[in-house]
Design brief:
single chain, mainly beta, 2 domains, 4-stranded antiparallel sheet, 7% helix, flat
Length: 163
């Protein structure tokens, strides 16, 4: 079930029956990064905290993100999270598939035999990765653009590759 919420602020300086909306349109969803918080869609916000920078941070359960609301400008942004429940697989971060890229748009090779899928998609063509890949560090480790900062640390990580 999707739920929407508005973040509001009330203060003793305001009339006891007043509330000021500072983020959210009342429609569940995800939109508005870089714009006014009052025009952004949020999905099930939870746990408001004020950060050391004076901004308001809140967990957005429905969008698997932490959002940041600059209380001076009213601008909303994503502080953490990709919108994906959990995190991406190592396959999407460290394991490029050049052969899949080469075969993109073609049917599954016959060497796989008859493919059976629950949704009847066995005749669909192969899709390439949606990620961009580059080699980084002295190790030359392949890293996708999913987490751009991780590429700066590849020589400090241990990776086991096998076939």
């Amino acid at each position: 079930m999707r739920s929407a919420a508005l973040l509001f602020f009330s203060s003793a300086a305001l009339c006891a029956q007043s509330a000021v909306i500072i983020a959210g349109t009342g429609v569940a969803g995800f939109s508005g990064d870089g714009g006014p918080g009052v025009k952004a869609q949020v999905n099930n916000p939870y746990g408001l905290v004020t950060g050391p920078d004076g901004a308001l941070y809140f967990c957005e359960i429905g969008n698997h993100r932490v959002r940041r609301l600059d209380l001076k400008s009213g601008t909303i942004s994503t502080a953490a999270g990709s919108g994906q429940k959990g995190g991406p697989s190592h396959i999407d971060i460290f394991d490029p598939k050049p052969e899949l890229e080469r075969l993109a748009g073609q049917p599954m090779p016959a060497s796989f035999g008859k493919v059976i899928t629950a949704m009847g998609t066995a005749s669909n063509t192969l899709m390439p990765s949606s990620r961009k890949w580059k080699q980084y560090g002295q190790s030359g480790m392949w890293v996708s653009d999913w987490y751009p900062n991780i590429a700066q640390h590849v020589d400090d990580m241990t990776m086991f590759h096998s076939c």
